[in-house]
Amino acid sequence: MKPLRLVLLIILLVAAFYILTDRAGRSTLSSNPPAASPEITRPGHVALAEASGPPLLDAEEQLNISVYKKALPSVVNITSTAVAFDFFYGPVPQQGMGSGFVIDGEGHILTNYHVVENARQLEVTTSDKKKYKAQVVGADPVQDLAVIQIPIKTVPQAEIGDSKQLVVGQKVFAIGNPFGLSGTMTRGIISSIRQVRGPRGFIDEAIQTDAAINPGNSGGPLLNSRGQVIGINSMILTGGVEQSAGIGFAIPINTAKAVLDDLVHIGRVRRPELGIRSIPIGPELADELGLASDSGLLIIQVVPGSSAEHAGLHGGTERVYLGNTPILRGGDLLVAVDGQAIENSQELSHVMQNHRAGDTITVTIYRGKKRMDLKVVLGESRGTA
């Protein structure tokens, strides 16, 4: 028992010591505040060196403000709700956010296809914080474009520019909804104009910019210094991190203008087809096959019933081998469309994007050594050139 009593006595002494020292410390702090340092002053009023007048904005700041004020009213935030399924196959709503801009007085809004893809419900918030239900009017997955519509027709529409004469170094501005932060503007320059691979196909003459573009900017406008839309912000190069790395891409507005009528009127793009299967020709292959030109597209096959067949284009008839790859030799060599030289399938695709099904084009070919021009009425694409 004595050891136990000794332990209890020690505990009581420690507790008493703690209580006494704690109270003494609090009393000392409350009754004896630390003396102020002689360097500290406490004037009755803090005298600030205030500006003598409103701030003067330089020319660059005034440009930024004017672009923002002009473009912002037409820019909208888009919230899409899709349905996913959990482990037990139960429906789970999922929300995504993007941007868009009003293009006419009917409430039509241009955005990216991937912003509205698989959406069960769309909600649009305008710059004055009003919300509207929206519906998809038309979609072009290949070019990552979509048109949606809200019932209100009084939202200001964007001024649409021209992306044909853009140059590297030109100032650009992006307005959108990055990370859900509505009404955000960033600025930069055009870094390059190049072909890039989109989610479902190549985008010709895509506008590369260092203006900060982040998730939520997709579908918003890329503007020039006059506040005109020259592109639709679409992609960022992230290096595995979902945020801006100073390399973003916008679809040129002229690409969208070329398909807007189809998207609004019939809900899809009547993308044209020529109806051929071909291989690109270089000088060595042209010499090996005895062709009349050292560049172009050698037509291997003409699709039955296609525009090319109706126009009288010929495919190959003689089987030969390029290494271990069999091809058909003897077909027409396509070298130009409407006077524009064609050297590969990308150039042919670029020409096709400037046309719609039903357009008539002039195709220049070599048949043997004879140069010929043929008129071709383009059909609607079925997945061939």
Structure description:
- The mean pLDDT is 86.
- The protein starts with a helix and ends in a 5-residue tail after the last strand.
- It has 8 helices and 22 strands.
- 21% of the residues lie in helices and 37% in strands.
- It folds into 3 domains: 60-149, Trypsin-like serine proteases (Thrombin, subunit H, Beta Barrel), CATH 2.40.10.10; 171-265, Thrombin, subunit H; 272-380, Pdz3 Domain (Roll).
- The strands form 5 sheets. It has a 6-stranded antiparallel barrel. A 6-stranded antiparallel beta barrel has the order 7-8-9-12-11-10.
- The protein has 385 residues and is an alpha+beta fold.
- The radius of gyration is 33 Å and the shape is elongated.
What's the topology here?
Blueprint: H1 2-31, H2 59-71, E1 75-85, E2 91-102, E3 108-111, H3 113-116, E4 121-125, E5 131-140, E6 145-149, E7 171-176, E8 184-197, E9 202-209, E10 221-223, E11 229-236, E12 248-252, H4 253-257, H5 260-265, E13 272-273, E14 276-281, H6 283-289, E15 296-302, H7 307-311, E16 318-322, E17 325-329, E18 333-337, E19 340-341, H8 345-353, E20 360-367, E21 370-377, E22 379-380
Short description:
The protein is of the alpha+beta class.
Question: What's the CATH class label of the largest domain?
Answer: Mainly Beta
User: In total, how many domains does the architecture comprise?
Assistant: 3
Low-confidence stretches: none
Cα-atom radius of gyration: 33 Å
